[in-house]
Amino acid sequence: MARPLTRAAATAAGALATGAAIAVGIGAAGSAASAVVERRRNRVHHRGPYRVSGRAADLHRTLTVVDLHADSLLWGRDLLRRAGYGHVDVPRLIEGNVALVGMAASTKVPRGVNLERNDDSTDDVTLLALASRWPRSTWRSLLARAIHLATRLRSMADASGGRLTLVETRHGLESYLARREVEPAITAAFLAVEGAHALDGDLDNLDALARVGYRMLSPTHFFDTPFAGSAHGVVQGGLTPAQRHPPPSPP
What we know:
Elements: H1 7-29, H2 32-41, H3 54-62, E1 65-70, H4 90-95, E2 98-105, H5 124-131, H6 142-158, E3 164-166, H7 170-182, E4 187-193, H8 206-211, E5 214-217
Parallel strand pairs: 1-2, 2-4, 3-4, 4-5
């Protein structure tokens, strides 16, 4: 006679069953799965327009608004189309007078992520990559995931008819801002990476990230990396010797 499952075993079995169901549904659902998750996790609770005074609206129109962080690349949505959910898209950025947004690449996120303690033994982005049919190279390589997300943003910028500019240099930013003075119905983005784990453990991969357009990289995100301890990780320390390039010579 089979022995009944303990609560922990039952929970583990349920998680495995869920994972199997996701895997089976990948072929049928494709990128629709990531859209469902985004709708649930990134809800827009305020549906109508905010009421502001005429004075506030006039001031807002004079500002150069910069949003330093949006996770919208992760979910596979066409950001050239307006959506009623998720962080941003190009129509809403333009309508909100946002001049520049930082598009962040999340290449690995622990399951059950929290603010106290996370390790790198699990990864929800792998499931998202499978469900969204990312290239096979992204299934194991975090660097490949970052490159894939950068390529998607560049493709959208190229297809935007000038509404979206990918900023990569100081000169490019200055040229874009000058154009925006006479064409206010445009927006721009720069690429950032959430955590140096996207380097796949090799500082030389900084060049690969730079080549595809990334201009910002944090040493950690939610968990410790070979380069630093995250405030939300296990060690929760500072920078490690490996963050130096080249590494320091022994005494």
